[in-house]
């Protein structure tokens, strides 16, 4: 297969960059095998990506002693995106490289749900600080936001993020105006599902149900036949808004409540005596609290109550969608990891047997990075589709800020 005009060249550049993005450094020989292109075409494409400052070439692996050594191609570490996850108790920001490594992360705790304008100002302030002090040589290709609420797929309008009290909020425009960088917005759980499907616990799995448990409740994402499913307007996956099946009425805490009212991070925090905590802190507190043998311990009882209700919700999802893997993130992973096999058995006990024969329950292996990596994927979407970036960081920043079309290398 040879290059065929500008469109073919763009597709081939995107193919090579996508392989490096998803798999990490590869030799030219491996890229040749994976793409079906010939060696001279791969050399030409790698050279173009290298001149654009997107990839770099390294010396061949000295351990390889058979045949001609093949140079190693890797993502240039200067290419980054800013990822943001606003929540009711904190705004988390990170700088994420195109190879998914996180350069830095900051958690800014807030006394109340932040306003959209506050979020935009914080992003702009931190980006300006990082450019001067932390990552002066980086090329920031854009900003991605993972928002706990309904985000319209067509334009990124936040239709309803109830816990943040954001309704019909033009968040993309607010952030672009404040920070001067291209911005994209998506639902946090859908982005977590995408990240785990591309790089984490559901990598290479075709049918996945992902549930994310955060400070704003429970959201979800779906991968069906290897394709992310967002629904007509991008609002699919709101498992937390379903009415839970509760077999024992003594387990109910919110009359007429939805799933996220019953299976709740806030209730877990209250049980372990914490007002606020990041994911690792809450997980450690729960593990320490249930380490004893007392079956009547209040914390253990609350954990078990939530696990019973979660198992029913997952059983319903398995009946409807027949996934091969269910991935749980955030505090839901904490609940599952108390005893994964037991939770899986409870789900199997409430679902059709044929649908659970090969079912696996997995914790999100990207852990607290999953939403940030998912948000960064939004920001990287443009460069991954069309890697024809400018040849210098200065040109890149100028074109990105002005909104100009990228220059050809």
UniProtKB/TrEMBL annotation:
All residue ranges annotated as the HTH marR-type domain in the record: 15-65
For molecular function, the Gene Ontology terms on record are: DNA-binding transcription factor activity
Similarity section: Belongs to the ROK (NagC/XylR) family.
**PANTHER family assigned:** BIFUNCTIONAL UDP-N-ACETYLGLUCOSAMINE 2-EPIMERASE_N-ACETYLMANNOSAMINE KINASE (PTHR18964:SF149), ROK (REPRESSOR, ORF, KINASE) FAMILY (PTHR18964)
Q: Provide the protein name.
A: Transcriptional regulator
């Amino acid at each position: 297969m040879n290059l065929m005009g500008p469109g073919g060249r763009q597709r081939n550049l995107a193919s090579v960059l996508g392989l490096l993005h998803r798999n990490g450094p590869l030799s030219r020989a491996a890229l040749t095998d994976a793409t079906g292109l010939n060696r001279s075409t791969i050399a030409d494409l790698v050279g173009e990506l290298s001149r654009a400052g997107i990839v770099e070439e390294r010396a061949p692996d000295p351990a390889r002693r058979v045949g001609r050594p093949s140079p190693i191609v890797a993502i240039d570490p200067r290419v980054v995106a800013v990822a943001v996850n606003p929540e009711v108790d904190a705004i988390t920001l990170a700088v994420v490289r195109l190879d998914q490594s996180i350069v830095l992360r900051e958690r800014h705790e807030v006394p109340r749900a932040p306003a959209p304008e506050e979020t935009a100002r914080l992003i702009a302030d931190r980006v300006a600080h990082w450019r001067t002090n932390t990552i002066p040589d980086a090329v920031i290709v854009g900003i991605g936001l993972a928002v706990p609420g309904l985000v319209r797929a067509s334009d990124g309008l936040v239709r309803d993020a109830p816990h943040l009290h954001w309704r019909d909020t033009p968040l993309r425009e607010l952030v672009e105006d404040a920070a001067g960088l291209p911005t994209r917005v998506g639902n946090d759980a859908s982005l977590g599902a995408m990240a785990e499907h591309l790089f984490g616990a559901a990598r290479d799995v075709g049918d996945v149900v992902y549930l994310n448990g955060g400070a704003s409740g429970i959201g979800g994402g779906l991968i069906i036949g290897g394709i992310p499913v967002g629904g007509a307007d991008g609002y699919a996956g709101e498992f937390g808004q379903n009415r839970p099946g509760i077999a024992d009425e003594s387990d109910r805490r919110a009359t007429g409540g939805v799933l996220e009212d019953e299976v709740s991070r806030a209730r877990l925090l209250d049980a372990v005596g914490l007002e606020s905590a990041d994911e690792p802190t809450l997980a450690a507190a729960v593990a320490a609290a249930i380490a004893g043998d007392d079956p009547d311990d209040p914390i253990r009882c609350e954990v078990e109550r939530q696990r019973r209700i979660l198992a029913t919700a997952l059983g319903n999802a398995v009946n409807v969608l027949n996934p091969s893997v269910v991935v749980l993130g955030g505090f839901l992973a904490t609940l599952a990891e108390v005893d994964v096999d037991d939770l899986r058995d409870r789900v199997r006990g409430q679902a059709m047997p044929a649908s659970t024969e090969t079912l696996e329950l997995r914790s999100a292996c990207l852990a607290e990075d999953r939403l940030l990596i998912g948000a960064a994927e939004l920001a990287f979407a443009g460069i991954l589709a069309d890697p024809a970036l400018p040849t210098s960081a200065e040109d890149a920043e100028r074109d990105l800020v002005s909104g100009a079309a990228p220059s050809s290398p």
